[in-house]
Amino acid sequence: MRKADWKKRSYTREEFVQAWLTSKTVGEVAKKLGRNRSGGGYVVLKTAARELSLPTDHMIEYGFSTGPSYNRYRSIPLSAILIKDSSYTNIARLKIRLLREGLLEARCDEEDCGLTDWKGRPIALQLDHINGDKFDHRIENLRLLCPNCHSQTDTFAGRNKRN
Predict the structure, then answer these.
(1) Is residue 72 part of a domain?
(2) What is the count of structural domains for the chain?
(3) Are residues 82 and 47 part of one domain?
(4) CA–centroid distance for 149 within its chain
(5) Are 108 and 145 a contacting pair, CB within 8 Å?
């Protein structure tokens, strides 16, 4: 293994030790020392730390998970979605939430159909807006239909849309 040559470095041994002991990641050490945070730089820094017998128990493997965490997929309350003129557009996610909350049943809502499965597997149901207004998410305006029944409706694929 190659030894660290401190004469060729742009930082001193003391600067390196201070940067190592006050950092949580090798990338943070590189940044503090003004080094490139890609390529073989990490190997050089890790080798130098090993030669100096510096502790590694305070270091974490990946720095992208540091800092305050937040829920980037915050859940919008259904009461704010299930309204007329809703700005919510993720219909696939809305369908999943309505099924999970028990507001809709996993079966085709057409009177003559009522399918729940197709060829032994759960059928792919589609969320239909009865009045054709894709922004009217009131629960009384929503129903689940199988693809066949949905294609027969007056409002399928934007036909007779109200907005």
Answers:
(1) no
(2) 2
(3) no
(4) 33
(5) yes
Compute CA distances 33 → 40, 41, 43, 82, 120, whole Å.
Answer: 15, 11, 15, 54, 62
Amino acid at 102: G
Q: Which two tokens stand for residue 63?
A: 């720095």
Select from 81, 60, 91 the least CA-distant residue to 139.
81
HSE-CB of 100 using CA atoms within 13 angstroms: 7
**d(Cα 94, Cα 142) in Å, to the nearest integer?**
11
Condensed to tens digits (0 to 9), the pLDDT of residues 135-162 reads 899 999 999 999 888 888 887 776 666 6
The H or E element spanning position 21 is: helix 13-21
The phi, psi pair for 88, rounded to 5°, reads -70, 130
pTM over 0.85: no
Residue 92: which of 126, 129, 130 has the closest Cα? 126
